[in-house]
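Lab notebook page, bench 4
Experiment: in silico fold of construct C2
Operator: M.H.
Input chain length: 138 residues
Purpose: comparison with the prior construct
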Amino acid sequence: MELPLRRIERAETPVMFVAVKDGSDEIGPAWDHLETLLGSLRGRKFLGMFDESGIYRCCVQIRDGEDADQLGLQSGVVPGGQYLSATVRGPQPAAYALLTPTFEQLRRSGNRDATRPSIEYYRRHDRIDLLMPIRGRA
């Protein structure tokens, strides 16, 4: 099933993250580890970030006063810019099965910018926005 696509502009986002091998069984435990380190998840913004390097980053937006080093996490930035986006809806973990086919749809539909990573933005327990970086204007 093809999902509706939209072009968006995303601001650069400073994050803390755990990095693991993309496509591996390590991703689920890495998310669990990140959530455990944070304690309360309320009001947090979580993003998955991956590119051609084979590394998947489980990310959380940094809040004022947080120190990634103190938590044993790495820090970085989710790049801003133009993205082609689709939204996957449904309960997790069942919705995870839709991620790969939806990213394939995004790749077929846009002028991918390989210099920036693709993003999974976990908006709610039943909504994941998938973003593929593109060249050009929105």
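Observations: The chain has a mean pLDDT of 91. DSSP finds three helices and eight strands in the chain.
Next step: discuss at group meeting.
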